[in-house]
From TrEMBL:
This is TetR family transcriptional regulator. Pfam families: TetR_C_31, TetR_N. The lineage of its organism: Bacteria, Bacillati, Actinomycetota, Actinomycetes, Kitasatosporales. Keywords: DNA-binding, Transcription, Transcription regulation. InterPro entries: Homeodomain-like_sf, HTH-type_TetR-like_transc_reg, HTH_TetR, Tet_transcr_reg_TetR-rel_C_sf, TetR_C_31. Residues 6-66 form the HTH tetR-type domain. It comes from the Bacteria.
Length: 202
């Protein structure tokens, strides 16, 4: 049982994502959330006044945690020292290592729900903006010009390929191939390995 308010909110959000991933948005009820999270039904309504609040916060929390994880990975990998093939392989490794459990399926359900419920669209836009910022940061580190403009295309490609993996059970190899095709077209003059700034004398 969670002991602090922050712990309770996290438990509730995790429960919402699992329920959505397993059975869809329509299955989200306060009674089911409470049972899944191990809290009282009153705790659910105390922390989240409406179902809209629940869905919005669940989507934002998932994306915040994912972008934090990917940012840490990008920093640990020293992207300024690797080239496009290695970067694409790294993304493929992350994608291939992401199992489509219920919590990872849930965001796709929530994005579709945002198409039906305009109250969720601002949250969905905020989520994609976070992914765009991360993609632009990675592209910039790789020496790709006009990284901010291309970031949305990269995010759309990754999202689409992940949806395809979810629907078909395919591997992450297609994602790596697609990223390489896009990146090489965007930065044809970038060498296979990009030296660090200090090695270039910058």
């Amino acid at each position: 049982m969670p002991k602090r308010a922050g712990d309770t909110r996290r438990c509730i959000i995790g429960a919402v994502l699992r329920i959505i991933g397993r059975d869809g948005v329509a299955a989200v009820t306060n009674r089911r959330i409470a049972k899944e999270a191990g809290v009282s039904p009153g705790s659910v309504t105390y922390h989240f006044a409406t179902q809209h609040d629940l869905l919005r916060e669940s989507l934002l929390r998932f994306v915040a945690e994912e972008t934090r994880r990917f940012t840490e990975l990008a920093e640990d990998s020293r992207l300024d020292r690797i080239g496009l093939p290695e970067a694409a392989a790294l993304v493929g490794q992350v994608a291939g290592g992401t199992e489509f459990d219920s919590e990872h399926i849930a965001p796709f359900e929530l994005y579709v729900q945002a198409g039906r419920d305009e109250r969720l669209r601002a949250a969905a836009a905020e989520c994609f903006a976070a992914y765009d910022r991360l993609a632009a940061r990675i592209l910039t580190a790789l020496g790709v010009t006009d990284a901010e403009r291309l970031a949305g295309t990269v995010v759309a490609l990754v999202t689409g390929q992940q949806l395809r993996r979810l629907a078909t059970g395919s591997t992450a190899e297609d994602l790596v191939d697609a990223l390489l095709l896009l990146a090489r077209g965007a930065a044809p003059d970038v060498p296979a390995a990009v030296p660090a700034a200090r090695d270039r004398g910058d």
